[in-house]
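Late entry, evening session. Most of the bench is empty. Finally got around to the prediction I had been postponing all week. Sequence below, unchanged from the version circulated by S.P.
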Amino acid sequence: MPNEIKEIAAASLIPKEAPAVVQKGQRSITIGLPKEKSSEERRVVLTPEAVGLLTNNGLEVVVETGAGKASKFSDQDYSDAGAKVVYSPEEALQAQVVLKVDAPDLGEIEKMTPGSCLISALQIGRQNREFIEALNAKKITAIAFEYLEDKVGGMPVVRAMSEIAGSTVMLIAAEYLSSVNDGKGLIMGGVTGVPPTQVVIIGAGTVAEYAARTALGLGANIKVFDNHIYKLRRLKQLLGQQIYTSTIDNLTLTQALAEADVVIGALRAEKGRNKIVVNEEMVANMMHGSIIIDVGIDQGGCIETARMTTHQDPTFMVHDVIHYCVPNIASRVSRTASYSLSNIFTPIILQMADLGGAEEMIFNYRWFLRGVYTYRGSLTNAYLARKFDLTHKELQLLLAARY
């Protein structure tokens, strides 16, 4: 008997596995990070540091091999952060929440799990009716970067990418003004005894702000056009100096374009597609060798002669004016852009895990709801419905019926 007592006492001292602590409302969510198929897209939504934070909070992250390679993040970086690195796109696309930069193609949608959540760019200028129908057939809840809002009504992804595009766009203009690229042979800004280059910026939002900062820093003269006086006033305050500003009227704008070396189309559509404010006749009156960069080309652009181009073939000529119309300018600086995207989406994914999934986020947060364009087999965006001749249902009514 004494020996039995000793054995029982000894056994009670052996460490036992502690039960896992489960927080109320929280459940494990699988996040998929597939490699971008398009050679045009070099960004990735989550950095290894962000993946480490998510996995430490109990989420499973599945990363397709090579997903971060273009942004100089290795598979080893993701593996060390706790991600599961897989060697087929199917495994990443079958996650409960799929994070992509570029919108998936029909083949990728087919590989996704029915009823899952997709968070990616929409890039409406590239999409067609079949894309929406494929999402609805799989009953996928799709959320567009471009429509996503934050708690104060701002558009965080649009703002972040616009900052990057605005800072980059003047450097692109400087490249194509160079004689090496058959431009006018001008230095951006000019030098002593030589007049500065003339830059026209159409729009007074975030892209315009950062493009204007860069242009002024390089010594260029700028003229900014927008039909919202409050935006023009705010831009002058942000820049801290007097600049030429004007509302958009054909006569004044035509005169400014005729003298411009660089034209930046920085208008963002408020509802659906952008309006054309620079027609072909205005472009024909511009100086030969000038450059047009339409940053909003993914929404149709604001310049009649603009059409979407690629990083491999970024420019074309119309009336001897160079046109640069690449939709994803931020992809030129993919590492910076990836960190910026990761900073936005990491806290959103953590909130999603706390609530229990994407649908709970939609139901609880109006700012997140704004990004939804398909929900459980229904198109919920009225503009897309008109564009592709499809029926749509109000998301609020669908949620009310479900809950």
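Two things to note before I forget:
DSSP finds 16 helices and 15 strands in the chain.
The chain has a mean pLDDT of 89.
Will write this up properly tomorrow.
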